[in-house]
Amino acid sequence: MSATPRRLSLAGLAVAGVVCGIAVASLVGGGGSAANGDETPAAPTGASTTRATAPSSSAPPPVTAAAPAGPMLVWTTGGLPPGFADGIAAVPGVTGLTVVRGDDLDLDGTESAAGSPVSEVRPGWFIPLDALAVDLATYGRVVPGGDVVVAALTTPDSAVLGATSAELRGIGIGGRLTVGGAHELTVTAVVPDAVVAAAEVVVSLETGATIGVTTPRSVLVRYTGARSDVERGITAHRDGRQVRFREGAETAYLRHGDAVLPQALIKQRFGEFAARHRDGTWLELDPAWVAANIVEVDLPVLGRTRCHALVVPMVEGALAELANAGLTSLVDPADFGGCYAPRLIGTGLGVSRHAWGVAIDVNVAANPLGGTSRQDPRLVAVMRHWGLAWGGEWLRPDPMHFEYLSPPR
Amino acid sequence: MICERARVAVSERMDGVDAAPSSAALEAHLQSCGTCAEFERLALRTRRALRFDLPPAPDGAVERVIAAVSVPPSARTQQRSRRPRRVVAAVALFCTCAAAAFVVTRARDGVAPAMADDRATFVAQAQTRVQSLQAAVALYQRDAAGAVGAHAAGNLTYVAPEGVLLRLTGDGGAVEIGVNGETAWRADATSTVIRGREPFDAAGWSPLDLIVPVDAFGRDEAGTSATARDGHPVEVVTTTVAQIDELLTALRTGQDWRPLHPADTVTLWLDASSAVPRRIEVAASPDADRAAWAARLGLAEPAGGALFIAELTELRVNEPAVAPVSPPAGSSTTAGGARDLGFVDRTVGEAELPVPGWLPAGMAPYRSGERRSPGADDAVVVRTWTNGRAWLKLTGTRTWHRDQLFGSLGALVRPVSTDTGVVYLSEDGSSIAVHGADVDLVLTGSVGTAELQRVVESLGVRGLAVPAWWAESGSTTVDDLQRAGREALVPPIGSETDGGATVTISATDDRVDVAIVGPGARGARLVLLDGLGAAPSEDPDARAVEVRGIAGRYSPALGELAWVERGRRVVLTSATFTAAELVELADQLRWTSG
User: Which value does ipTM take for this structure?
Assistant: First the structure.
């Protein structure tokens, strides 16, 4: 990373001091239980203490976080339709809303607050970064704890990291990220994952517009009255899109694509790689990461394939359970779509979980993306038991697809 | 509108229910939600497919059935009001069963000293009294349009200990399913015969619960109610489909049967002497998730009344001259083929398999032999004993070399210290494994866990703890967790009754698994994952619920209740408990320490 003027660092540190004060003031004393990142130790009930620090020397001390009571999440596939948010604002009962934008950024490198390089990616390569851009005028009023995020993003080119992201980056407040080859962001706060829907980095709308985080993904809505009435009112503005509504404990993170683990948590469990584009679909991944994580295995029923080493026991367990139950006929080995595939998601939603080797596609021809499922429910049940989420009930169904969600349960 | 409500509304609209939500709200949802729109399309298609014409029922049969199953409103109210008690009973299942097992363990007299009218004692004693049976069978079910009609009829024959023949004729044609010793068969349009069947082999179709429902009620300490039906003394039992799953699966064979929900209410009239089911009625559970399930399948479920009825008439128990059951002539050479499961009947010597010094009263030697499975490299021998429908089976090998317990007891087993060392109980207590110095054994059977344990202890084999690298080495007890200071959420069983057969625990560095097994197929699984918060939701119909005073989530499609407590993700899953039962069960859990 090139030498950088330190003015932003100083500004960032100044803001950081303010943010820490605000964070403690606004988060202490909140009621309810803490919402936690998937891999983030949860707080004891009632105590609601959640770690909000990065592991670098500049990390702030632990803060006490209030649990978000939860606004209602509204999201659609392929981004929000034009005018959708304005339509929602006019729905009777809606008292406030904020639009959240999201796109993947290309991370080129990071520096600590002291200016030392922490990570650097070779020219032409990048690390995919799950980024959100929030509206500073409304986010704090709708999202519990969101005022901390807003206060931290008032300076141009400032950025907030989710706790898991800070852990992955190895940087904290005052640290810097270079994205898109030229833009430098300064970390002004590290917050619990739940406050930022486990995003890796959050910026303001204005900063987002300069670095390419512009696609409106979801709306977070405050309302009064019956939820069903509000949902009905919102649905009228959907413009042909399919809409999903979530609130409170119905899901772990109030963000688009809420049925899967956010990218930060996938990285936390399975590692982070640098990549470069081969074409518009396929990526070339860091060979060292591939060598350390992707293994070639001979799976029961399905045959030879490449997968992430940590997922192999789960897939093997699921297939063995099918075999023990006499259900191997539910999987057609001739119609196996594979596991490891370093590519982007076709719908512009970033890097596929297949790039981590943590997803498999089975009975592909009979279960096309966006089509009706023809998977046997017993197959789905066994996969889920082994911690593999099924895409058949996603907003845009992907019934061939199973991906890592949790340890077996 | 959430998806679950929308699907109920779709179904109600198909049924013309007046109370269905406004069509505008439903239409709005269907336009915005492709999954529900697809559901509506499939439901319409399913509904059309199910609208078949029933053949004429015997004169007056349908009317008699409907009249017999009509429940007066007052009774329905009473039934609903009893549900909380049943929920509590389900939640307290492990307490009562464990306590009962504890008492039985110490009684060591072969007869459970339980209440005279408890279900476990009733069926356990009755199974030894049934040597043969013949009955006419009539089966009725409610079709998709809501009408109850005759669906199949035939006869049932039983010759102890495991000869069963069920012949049914109905809309789906004629079907015959039979078992007799080493042979099992199924004959409908084609015939398939199994040879080399092991005694009491579940894989070889062994529907003994159809005769006396021991698997369903053998660990159920709830009471029965004596009355009379058609002049015969009977004991009435009310339960759920989940608990008599095996019985219903055996009975509902070879035809186009409507699905039943695990929470559906079942009433059985069991013959007071033999415990043979004279009549079974299934009614829809009033549970909200059950309504959503029916809506997903496009089923019409008018309130009240039976969904499925089985009647056994002309019942003759232990009458002489019942012919042994046998496959249809020529079936062994039919196109369906004969499959050899590899069991060979022969005498098994004491050097191969130890002989128990004690057996329950009346048990006599039955078949013995050797398992010769293709590809298997362990020499496995089997010896069995029976008394009427009751049975015991000892399986063993002296060449076991795998890093897990012999006998396929499942991932979760429970170690129990006995006078002859450590033995391992299966989740439901119906099997006990022994890892000896030079022999590995499994004893299973239709008798109680206490009797199984007494037989095992009389084998003269010292049970060793499994090596640390075996899968079962994480098996533990509530007491051991407590002693080790391991914080875990467990069912409310006191340490003194941890000898029960209903809770099985495995603990590793970062997780604790608990199996909670009730009568029949009733049960739940609890998983604690250390250091993990809430997971994203897979179920579009997931809803927030309060559990243990914490915001949690119930996912109907997964039968899963999940929440985060003391830094752990807690997942409680059941295919047979309703959401309300799971929440109540969760509320009963306690921490081992802290």
Answer: 0.81
